[in-house]
Design goal:
Keywords: Membrane, Transmembrane, Transmembrane helix. By secondary structure, the chain is of the alpha+beta class. It has six helices and five strands.
Length: 293
């Protein structure tokens, strides 16, 4: 009896080991084939998506485009009619001259213009008036403009510009008049040259206004001493002093040249030269040249 039990136990153990061996083989087979099967599935999905896109491009889009082209003339005609109607009503509601005035009174009297239409145009005019008044109010409050433009109030020069100018004046005592920020229209210093409140001396975002992100003026103009037209005498001295001071102080330059009244770079000996323009390298708006004469 004991021998029979041992035989049965041995057979069960053999079957268990065989079953375990088959499971391990199955795991190894799945490990080998799993990535391939996943790749095949992914490729099938991508192929399906491409097929859908191809159907949309080749079948649906042409139909939609054809429908749009067919409707386009009617859309344009509708917009044109609407524009003509609005323009006509605007002219009637805002008569200028005897003919327009007569047409306006006639249409209003006949009731052809619906009540309230002209009031709507008046409302638009009122909005424009409010905007204009708001702009005028802003121009009387430069501190608000300065906050919007991210510039200092009151206006000041970049500290590096002050150091550079002082150094140049020490080397060239007769360098002439010095102009950094806009003195002709001070409000322009708080709009970065945008002519919101009047005409400005320099272009928008000029280095005289600190460029697009500087807090203070980053450019200086030396006027010919004793006046415009003498740059041939002192221009070279100022430009050479600017180069020397730039190197000594470690302040890079962006532009250093004699200019004419159009801010075009010219030789200092040119008869059209009327000032020397120098800007800091940190200004993001100016370009060269950096001249020595």
């Amino acid at each position: 009896m004991a021998d029979l039990d041992e035989i049965l136990f041995a057979e069960q153990e053999r079957q268990r080991q065989e079953f375990e061996r088959m499971r391990q083989q199955d795991r190894r087979r799945q490990a080998r084939n799993g990535p391939i099967e996943n790749a095949i599935k992914q490729e099938a999905k991508q192929a399906g998506k491409k097929a859908v896109k191809r159907v949309i491009v080749t079948a649906v889009l042409p139909v939609l485009w054809s429908a749009f082209l067919a409707a386009l003339p009617f859309i344009l005609i509708g917009l044109l009619i609407a524009f003509v109607i609005v323009a006509a009503i605007y002219m009637v509601c805002n008569p200028e001259g005897l003919i327009a005035l007569g047409i306006s009174y006639g249409l209003e009297f006949s009731g052809m213009i619906p009540e309230g239409v002209c009031d709507a145009f008046s409302a638009f005019s009122g909005v424009a008036t409010v905007i204009t008044k708001g702009q005028e109010l802003m121009c009387t409050n430069p501190q608000i403009l300065a906050e919007q433009s991210r510039v200092t109030y009151p206006v000041r020069n970049d500290p590096d510009l002050d150091r550079l100018v002082s150094c140049i004046q020490a080397d060239v005592p007769n360098a002439g008049s010095v102009f950094t920020a806009d003195e002709s229209n001070e409000i322009c210093n708080y709009t970065r040259g945008a002519e919101t409140c009047g005409q400005c001396s320099h272009s928008v975002n000029s280095c005289h206004y600190g460029g697009t992100n500087g807090a203070g003026s980053m450019a200086v103009d030396f006027g010919g001493g004793p006046g415009a037209g003498n740059e041939g005498l002192i221009g070279t001295q100022v430009l050479q002093a600017a180069l020397s001071c730039s190197e000594t102080l470690g302040i890079p330059l962006k532009r250093s040249t004699c200019e004419n009244s159009s801010a075009t770079a010219v030789q200092c000996s040119d008869t059209s030269a009327n000032h020397i323009h120098i800007s800091l390298g940190k200004c993001d708006r100016d370009n060269g040249p950096i001249n020595s004469q």
